[in-house]
Amino acid sequence: MNNLKWLIWIAAGALLFFYIRTDIPNQDQVSATETLIKTYDPKLNPNQSLTDYLIFRAMISGEGKMAITGSSVAFGTGSSHQSNTWRGLIEVNFRNSNPALKKFKISNHGHPGYTSIRLLEDHVTAPILKEQPDILLIETSVINNHNKNVSLTDTFKSLDSLYQLYSQALPETRIVFLSPNPCTENKFGPPLNQFGLKFTDYVNETAIYIQNQGWTYFDTHGAMLYDMNAQNVTLASTLKDGIHPNDSGYKIWADVLWPFLKQKQGSLPNPM
Question: Does the keyword Hydrolase apply (predicted)?
Fold first, then answer.
């Protein structure tokens, strides 16, 4: 009987020792994890890419979060399915880029028909503020600003308000403005609006304004035209209705945006 008790005690002790040893992380594993996190720490990498920042946030919080807001071309109008929009394609690219982002999702806060002024409405901004994304992409909505005769002055004011709102409420969020895609025709208004301005005037003037403020900007319009010219792709073939991209157009958008998201910020110019 005594021998049986001793065997029970020895077995219990062995199990306890095994539990303690397996419950405590290996020091080498802890050190490797800390080193990996430091690799992506923005304090140690001030010009890091947006992708690396997202990976860092995923490592320290368990998930990386990105949101987009803008008009119908941010929402994905014209595509056969949301998975074929630039948002859907970029989402897959992120998932495949790093194990920390394997379940990554990009929330869609695009609103068809909205101008940049309407992007300030509470039902647009409240979900984004609640979500607290690590990266926020703001498509400038200037297709609608042009069509609906929003002046450049009011356009600039709205972009400034959007930046101030999100940068103050979400200080750790990286904010990126991006232009909409190039278009061939205007189905919702005249080529020249009541101010005598073309759609491309809005693209060019907002690009200058945003860059003069020192905000991060991606010229979707110019990058897509450059890529299409290099591939001998006609603009008309990338559009469903002259304004909204089709699946081919959204793929080109994703293809030109992805390198920008991976590049070190401030180190490389936007493709022109």
Answer: yes
- Tokens found for residue 193: 């609006």
Identify the residue with better confidence: 115 or 32.
Answer: 115
- Sign of the dihedral defined by the CA atoms of residues 223, 165, 262, 266, in that order: positive
Single-letter amino acid, residue 56: F
Weakest mean pLDDT among 60-64, 107-111, 140-144, 243-247 = 60-64
3-class secondary structure for 41-84?
Answer: CCCCCCCCCHHHHHHHHHHHHCCCEEEEEECHHHHCCCCCCHHH
Hey, where are the domains in the chain? Answer: 54-262
Phi-psi region of 111 (alpha: psi -120 to 50; beta: other; left: phi over 0): beta
**CA–CA separation, 261 and 53 (whole Å):** 10
72-101 per-residue burial string, b: 16 or more CB within 10 A, e: under 16:
bbbbbbbbeeeebbbbbbbbebbeebbebb
Q: Which of 113, 111, 133 is nearest to 122 (CA)?
A: 111
Q: Which CATH number describes the domain made up of 54-262? A: 3.40.50.1110
Q: Is the pLDDT of residue 31 over 60?
A: no
For helices 86-97 and 50-61, give the axis angle rounded to 10 degrees.
60
